[in-house]
Amino acid sequence: MTAKTVFQRIIDREIPADIVYEDDRCIAFKDIHPAAPVHVLIVPKQLIATVNDVTPADEPVMGHLFSAAKAVAAKLGLAGGYRIVINCGPDAGQEVMHVHLHLLGGRKFGWPPG
Questions:
Q1: Fewer beta carbons below 10 Å: N end or C end of the chain?
Q2: pLDDT tens by residue, 42-82
Q3: pTM of the model
Q4: Cα 17 to Cα 4, 8, 14, distances in angstroms
Q5: How far apart (Å, rounded) are the C-alpha atoms in residues 53 and 88?
Q6: Active-site residue set
């Protein structure tokens, strides 16, 4: 059996997190290494390792993550805008192999992102 990801352990309340939003399909919590004044991770409760593992059956939960991001951004007062990032695989910087959105805000961002 594969060990649980840190995100699965947060979902299962085995380790603490600063949760800012939760519903039946996802959970959102503050990143412990923020890259912006607001940096929240939005994680599906269903395990999907990477974007490359998303199937047509996963489309409802993946779409829901963006609805949750909108709700979190509103709750945290990001009316001026925010950035959503999804990393896919180690070369892109994905450290936890459980799909998640990074919701970043609270400052202006440049382009290209890096």
A1: N
A2: 999 999 999 999 999 999 999 999 999 999 999 999 999 99
A3: 0.94
A4: 16, 12, 10
A5: 10
A6: 100
